[in-house]
Amino acid sequence: PAQPMALNFFREYYESLSDYKTLVGLLRSAQHKVKDTAERVTLGEEMARIAEQKLDDPERAIDLWKGVARLQEDHEEAKEALKRLYRVTEKWNALLEIIKEEVDALGDDEVDAKVNRLLQMVDIYEKLRVDVMVLNTYNSILELQPDNKEVLDALAEKYESAGRINDLIGVLEK
Cys bridge to 54: 20, 70, 128, 169, which one at CB 3.0-4.6 A? Predict the structure, then answer.
């Protein structure tokens, strides 16, 4: 399966038949036989794209993109694809883990990027209805940007709706 000419032949053949399941199986066999990591990554990318775009199988695409990310930890396309697919499949906890890793990887001087990702986390916590985490994340943002008016307003609204008057007074004083 890893012989390049044979692989190209069968790739074209199965694509012409629109038999993408068999093609992914063939590519998987080739990936297991190949020793070069870069080539394994390339085959993984191809399988993941086929699973997502041709087979419309987000679960399989997630598994394949995870495989690519394991082979090459800094693979940006895999990270972005996983984030997109986690949103589509509503795997919020897995998406949160990726975003948390991104926040942790950012430097202290990248405040705007951190805030952006923390706001993405707030949206997910809202979907999950985890108000405690929403409040904690808003407070984390305020540690980075104490004068962020939108976050202060949102936090005040949350405290007011939860009946946490003392916390609301603290936010209003800021």
Answer: 20
